[in-house]
């Protein structure tokens, strides 16, 4: 049975509802984050907001205190869910490295001085972004060149577009497709802290105006208000500072990752379009659709053969190894002429016309070349053109021809190893 994409996902994400919701590997932290929001709100509604229902008799405005805090809480939980349960902008992985970027490095040589080209491709490329050259890096895990502003999250094990950071409080990467919801979650939490703190202080003020004239007595009568004020004050330093920091990042069109990594870089940013346009880009533009269909079925790709080395097709400068290869072609040409003759007498004439010492020298040279791993091919397989226009190939000699040629100079030719 064919698997769906979320079932064979190579990242560290967790899925719910058959791939409809995608979370980070630390999604359990969501329960802790939700409790930090819901528990104080419940305490506020029971011990503070309920006591303020009749403190504003005009138009029953006291009910607005309860409605506002409940609406804020629902909004924050929705923003939290939209941040942590959606694709942050994951770039799909490739099944193989980009072959169009392959190149052969001719700089390496063996001990004999012969070129041994190796298959390589650039690790870094430069692309033009708004007139500025930006470097993009190759990701070994995803086997892609990361788009500009993209980075690989080591926790989720994915490349994420416009990567900001991985937030443990929401259990998800913050990227191009959920940054807006993350900012709304943080800023709304800041406003909620301010609202609960103000309403709790207001309730203490009402108690002091009635039967508890001092602050100490009022606080003893409503300890829940005091706890809420302390809790909101502490949280305000965290979420309030985070809101201010991200307001700065949005105004300058930076990400948290870029701000920390390229802080010392004084060059103008390629993405800064002005404060107003930056806010419009982040908060008002349409969010791009996901590049991943997690519910789709996995399509099996046919196995790709490994890249074929073209070491023999690359032209080399004239050197002693090159000369040996050309001598090998000349010896092979002589053998081809011998094998093409059908009359044994013509073979005897041809072989007899050669000086035995010359033939002995040729065979000795052939043996030396075989020992240096330059083997004379013996089976006709393929004929191709080399860089100098010569035709190279291999030849199959019949046993009768070999027997005839060996009988001519039986006493002069030393024993040889059988052909492979």
Automatic annotation (TrEMBL):
Membrane topology, record value: Multi-pass membrane protein
Catalytic activity: L-cysteinyl-[protein] + hexadecanoyl-CoA = S-hexadecanoyl-L-cysteinyl-[protein] + CoA
Entry keyword annotation includes Transmembrane helix: yes
A single GO molecular function term of this UniProt record: protein-cysteine S-palmitoyltransferase activity
Keywords carried by this UniProt record: Acyltransferase, Lipoprotein, Membrane, Palmitate, Transferase, Transmembrane, Transmembrane helix
Biased composition (Low complexity): 392-408
Organism whose genome encodes this protein: Canna indica (Indian-shot)
Claim: Transmembrane helix is one of the keywords in the record: yes
Domain notes: The DHHC domain is required for palmitoyltransferase activity.
E.C. no: 2.3.1.225
PROSITE patterns: DHHC (PS50216)
Protein name: S-acyltransferase
Main location (coarse class): membrane
Primary enzyme class: transferase
Region ranges (Disordered): 94-118, 299-327, 376-420
One example of a Gene Ontology biological process annotation: protein targeting to membrane
InterPro entries noted in UniProt: Palmitoyltrfase_DHHC, PFA4/ZDH16/20/ERF2-like
Species classification: Eukaryota, Viridiplantae, Streptophyta, Embryophyta, Tracheophyta
Compositionally biased intervals (Basic and acidic residues): 310-327
